[in-house]
Design a protein that fits this description.
Two copies of one chain form a homodimer. In chain A, a hairpin with a 5-residue loop joins strand 3 (about 80-85) and strand 4. The longest helix of chain A has 14 residues, at about 60-75. The first copy, chain A, is built from eight helices and 13 strands. Chain A is globular, with a radius of gyration of 18 Å. Chain A has a seven-stranded antiparallel β-sheet with strand order 2-11-7-13-5-4-3. The first copy, chain A, starts with 19 loop residues before the first strand and ends in a 30-residue tail after the last strand. With about 300 residues, chain A is α+β, with helices and mostly antiparallel strands. Helix content of chain A is about 25%, strand content about 20%. The interface of A and B includes residues 136, 215, 250, 253 and 254 of A. Chains A, B: This is Ectoine hydroxylase. Chains A, B: It is an enzyme of class 1 (oxidoreductase). Chains A, B: Keywords: Oxidoreductase. Chains A, B: Its EC number is 1.14.11.55.
Amino acid sequence: MNTRTDDHYPTRLDHAIPPIPRIEPGVWGSADQGPLDDEALQSYADGGYLIRPRTVGPEWLPPLSMELNRLGAELDHDDPRVIREPGGGIRSVFEPHLLSNLIAEVVGLETVLPVARQLLGSDVYIHQARINMMPGFTGSGFYWHSDFETWHAEDGMPAIRAVSCSIALTDNYPFNGSLMVMPGSHQTFYPCVGATPDDNYTSSLVSQRIGTPDQDTLVKACDERGIDQFTGPAGTALWFDANLLHGSGSNITPYPRSNVFLVFNSVDNGLVEPFAAKSRRPSFLAARDIVPAGLQ
Amino acid sequence: MNTRTDDHYPTRLDHAIPPIPRIEPGVWGSADQGPLDDEALQSYADGGYLIRPRTVGPEWLPPLSMELNRLGAELDHDDPRVIREPGGGIRSVFEPHLLSNLIAEVVGLETVLPVARQLLGSDVYIHQARINMMPGFTGSGFYWHSDFETWHAEDGMPAIRAVSCSIALTDNYPFNGSLMVMPGSHQTFYPCVGATPDDNYTSSLVSQRIGTPDQDTLVKACDERGIDQFTGPAGTALWFDANLLHGSGSNITPYPRSNVFLVFNSVDNGLVEPFAAKSRRPSFLAARDIVPAGLQ
């Protein structure tokens, strides 16, 4: 671990090192290659995220909202793809695109797949997918982190050439634990201190402790970048760069927050061995078969 | 406990009972009795809260921001008026108006005391006061509750004729755990289930478990009332009725949230014996000497 001399993004270290400027472009495709115009592409390149209303229309919402519990009930109680809240409720189901035709259809929508291809400038495949629900009253939130930091360290994702698409199934208010991002933070890789524990993912999916920047780093990043919050009606998608710092507070309101979460990786950025973990994570967290996603 | 036949607002019960409409008016004074005009008074009567920018000017902020830690450092480590976060930081200091000339001055400001007198239609005194800080990164928030429910049950406040004035010492954003209220909920008293444990206050000040409405009640209240969030620059005051349902989420941002919190009670509403607790709470939580507050 951390012995690879070819690693541009070292992390999970035994001592702090300075932030590392990103070497990859923020956007790989151009305006003639998809639905996003120059302005949208520039905004995504600068801020690291893009909000796209009506990514799924209202007719999609009731059936999609039922998929989490339907899949959760269908799968064995100890199926590792089902993540439960400390209180027992279902928080996430992984690999829904392989378990549900409905979710597979969402991946292939004209409002989804062409956007992913354009941002990454290539064919794409699903690196990870899940349906999430943060319940009302007890949703516990998630601390600041870059997804790429984990995918690089624990899954062996070589370059920052992946994008997450979070499609809201419920309305996102400022006060129900909706996602916060530090705009522009994707342009910097923040190496983290602390070795990866064995089977870290069994706890990190509920509450992440390893792979988060220290407080001084976050204060500086926040001073420089500020915080934007993702709010909007159900059906809206938030697209965000794999390396964007994000997190969420708790949710004491009665309003749950559900989404379909799709991570697209470039087919030219397939996984290698983990950069900072002893062993690979399961394929439901990090697909190793590169199956290019196709339009419906 | 709960044996008093004269109690219009029974709570801490062994079984659920329906919500009880409030019998007191929302506002006791009139437009000719203070700085608030008819529109502001009507808005407070309807919604149960009022936001007043520049209640303290910018020159007050640096000295006020230092008072929490100054008082915390001055008082003995085991002084019960100092409330600490689970992590050890100072969360609140009670009775600051008796410990600090600066805080006493704030109570007597033209932007503060006359507003309290007008809303309550009488002379007023400080029922409880504190300086609070919710730290960045680890601030844990507070679940939904009505303050009056506690003050009635544990302190013997007879009627809903008190108002809280929370003066922000830091900027309140939507995402740093700022206060949420259910507008109009002050018009209903929500009896709570569960007897008051002995010395409940020693834990309830950090995390309240007793004296909170059940989830079904909160869902209904929220459907009916919605949620408003208190945001605004440092120096802004939130005035809110003692019976307004309020709470706050956690704060994972680097931005702390500090305020001076003053509870004014009408001199005609002095405390009697607790309505649903075995013994009185200490006077730093619930003053029993009615000393009318005066202008500076």
